[in-house]
Amino acid sequence: MEREISNVRLYAMRLVFLLTFVGLAPSAWQEIIVPAETWEPFYGVAIAFWAALALLSIMGFLYPLKMLPLLFLQLTYKLIWILGVGLPLWQQGLLEGAARELAFANGIGVILDILVIPWVYVARQYFYRPIWWFSGQEKHREPAN
After folding, report:
1. Which of 139, 118, 140 is nearest to 1 (CA)?
2. Residue 10 to residue 38: CA distance in whole angstroms
3. Do residues 100 and 81 lie in contact, with contact meaning Cβ atoms separated by under 8 Å?
4. What is the pLDDT of residues 4-39, one digit of tens each?
5. How far, in Å, CA of 17 to CA of 56, rounded?
6. Residue 125: exposure state from Cβ atoms within 10 A (0-12, 13-18, ≥19)
7. Which residues are within 8 A (CB) of 73 and not within 5 positions of it... i.e. 6 or more apart?
8. Exposed (0-12), middle (13-18) or buried (19+): which is 60, by Cβ within 10 Å?
9. What is the four-CA torsion angle of 57, 60, 62, 66, rounded to 10 degrees?
10. What is the per-residue pLDDT for 117?
11. Pick from 116, 122, 119, 118: which is nearest to 19 by CA?
């Protein structure tokens, strides 16, 4: 499968996974290991999510195509944050401080994800391939390489 993807694209994906790890791991894991205070439940979910995303990004760095769904997750959550949190704050003139920094970081992340995701490969692997429950096969089998 990697023959379909250029080395430049694979290294770009690895770079995004590396940036995700470097950007999230220190702050998320420091907060987990040495919490500054007791967390509110939703703050704890965010920290746990970022810590997990950072760890899984190591696997993405090593196996970028196998961990491609992680880039989908990252793209999706950042777009949802921008549209659901950042945009309303901006419209009300309240996008400042940490929210402004998050909006900028998420915007850069969305752009990078869109640029590095191999969209033709995604279309072939996820949309054009028959899905087992529609094709009548009992279970989905990966093609032999």
Report:
1. 118
2. 40
3. no
4. 899 999 999 999 999 999 999 999 999 999 998 999
5. 9
6. middle
7. 53
8. buried
9. 150
10. 97
11. 116
Residue found under tokens 């028959």: 130
Task: Identify the CA nearest to 31 among candidates 51, 54, 17.
Answer: 51
Q: Are 86 and 60 in contact (CB under 8 A)?
A: no
d(CA 59, CA 85): 29
Predicted confidence at residue 16, as pLDDT, reads: 98
Q: Which two tokens stand for residue 44?
A: 């704890």
